[in-house]
Amino acid sequence: MNDRNETGKKRYRPNVAAIILSSRYPEKVEFFIASRSDVKDAWQFPQGGIDKGETPKEALFRELKEEIGTDEVEIVAEYPEWVSYDFPEMIAKKMYPFDGQRQKYFLVRLKKGARINLDTEEPEFVQYTFVPYERIFDFITYFKRPIYKKVLEYFRKKGYL
């Protein structure tokens, strides 16, 4: 399998990602991260594909409901551009025909009383925790770190974090 399609261009799967702040935001800034069920010790923010005909915001709420059992969030901010990354080899085969993902990031806050439930129809995560900004990269899987740093820095510079 070569890494290009017939036109020689890489193929990126349209995707949304949610940087979830706890319901204690803005008094306390802590981030939801979760450990994937299919890759050992791979922690990340919730994310998922955008279905045909769906807007990024619609995909965001659907994916949150599917992955963490709740869509009870308020959008705080949206990253202004799409960001892309290539899949590492171990994931690329599973995600064929895509070479990576093109993502739209949203900074969201859990509403008070929202209940996270990882025991969804098709569980993607086995555990979750909330961590301060300084601890995020102690957990996050290596290939997502550059994008996360870029997006989080933007939200910090804009005064959200």
Structure description:
The chain has helices spanning 56-68, 89-95, 136-139, 145-157; strands spanning 12-21, 31-36, 43-44, 47-49, 73-78, 83-86, 100-110, 125-131. It has a single domain (12-157), classed as Nucleoside Triphosphate Pyrophosphohydrolase, CATH 3.90.79. The protein is built from four helices and eight strands; from the N terminus they run ββββαββαββαα. β2 (31-36) and β3 form a beta hairpin. The protein has 161 residues and is α+β, with helices and mostly antiparallel strands.
Gap from first CA to last CA = 42 Å
Question: Residue ranges: pLDDT <50 for 5 or more in a row?
Answer: none
Question: How many individual domains?
Answer: 1
SSE ordering: EEEEHEEHEEHH
Major sheet summary line? 5 strands, mixed
Round the mean pLDDT to the nearest integer and report it: 94
Q: At CATH's second level, what is the architecture?
A: Alpha-Beta Complex
The gist of it:
With 161 residues, the chain is of the alpha+beta class.
List keywords for this structure.
alpha+beta; 5-stranded mixed sheet; 161 residues; 4 helices; 3-stranded antiparallel sheet; Nucleoside Triphosphate Pyrophosphohydrolase; globular
